[in-house]
């Protein structure tokens, strides 16, 4: 069962939402999974009201379909959704990199990005893909945080977490992420002034290659999938 570190400031509804959302994004609750409110309460140890509120929020994100008085079903992974999200993330990331290059970045924050890069390099060597994916997410979040634009960071964070569904789905379908790790090292070098290539170009090139790899696999393994109409 998904385990999340619970922020003491979270409401029960927020905690239920974050728990169910992560279970869907990680594939723990796979596409087509159906459960009533009562079954979700039993599986994740939440009371009914927080679960209902969480499910409505997930419905608004198009992660689940809801049938009143019957339950919810996890929506299929759709390549067109991932393609749209990827295009938005790329635009936001390039803007963030332009802002980073134009401003002054805290040295300690850059070192944190470099630390994630070192973790990814170790994970690739150890062939630990799950740990690599966690470090990759941290790398992206720390990198985007450097731009200082709070609205951009908030939008990017939400969209990136939705894209994680495709990243988990293709985690063992992809080749070992050696290329991505090498590209992240180059991006890190650009932050520290060790690369002659601009940060936004390195990020753009990485995004184009890696997203094409992921989306190609999502299309291949979900080909023919259609949005389900919830009729029971």
Offer a quick outline of the entry:
The protein has 232 residues and is mainly alpha-helical.
- The number of helical runs is 9
The rounded distance between the terminal residues' Cα atoms is: 27 Å
- The strand order across the widest sheet is 1-3-2
Task: Specify Rg, calculated over alpha carbons.
Answer: 19 Å
Describe the structure.
- The N terminus is likely disordered.
- The chain contains nine helices and three strands, in the order αβααββαααααα.
- Helix 1 packs across helix 3, helix 5 runs antiparallel to helix 8 and helix 6 runs antiparallel to helix 7.
- A three-stranded antiparallel beta sheet has the order 1-3-2.
What is the topological layout?
Elements: H1 12-25, E1 34-35, H2 37-44, H3 48-60, E2 64-67, E3 71-74, H4 79-102, H5 107-126, H6 129-145, H7 150-169, H8 178-191, H9 199-222
Antiparallel strand pairs: 1-3, 2-3
Helix pairs in contact: 1-3, 4-7, 4-9, 5-6, 5-8, 6-7, 8-9
Q: Main attributes?
A:
mainly alpha, three-stranded antiparallel β-sheet, 9 helices, 3 strands, disordered N terminus
């Amino acid at each position: 069962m998904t385990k999340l570190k619970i922020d003491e400031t979270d409401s029960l509804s927020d905690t239920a939402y974050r728990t169910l959302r992560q279970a869907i994004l990680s594939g723990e609750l796979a596409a087509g999974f159906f459960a009533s409110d009562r079954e979700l309460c039993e599986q994740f140890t939440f009371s009914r009201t927080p679960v209902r509120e969480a499910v409505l929020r997930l419905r608004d994100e198009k992660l689940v379909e809801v049938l009143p008085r019957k339950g919810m079903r996890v929506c299929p992974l759709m390549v067109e959704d991932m393609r749209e999200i990827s295009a938005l993330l790329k635009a936001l990331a390039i803007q963030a990199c332009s802002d980073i290059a134009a401003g002054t970045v805290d040295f300690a924050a850059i070192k944190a990005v470099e630390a994630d890069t070192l973790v990814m390099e170790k994970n690739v060597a150890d062939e630990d893909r799950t740990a690599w994916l966690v470090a990759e997410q941290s790398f992206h979040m720390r990198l985007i945080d450097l731009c200082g634009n709070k609205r951009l960071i908030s939008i990017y964070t939400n969209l990136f977490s939705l894209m994680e569904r495709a990243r988990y789905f293709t985690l063992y379908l992809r080749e070992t992420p050696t290329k991505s790790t090498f590209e992240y090292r180059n991006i890190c070098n650009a932050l520290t002034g060790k690369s002659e290539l601009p940060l936004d170009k390195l990020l753009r090139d990485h995004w184009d290659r890696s997203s094409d790899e992921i989306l190609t696999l999502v299309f291949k393994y979900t080909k023919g999938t259609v949005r389900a109409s919830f009729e029971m």
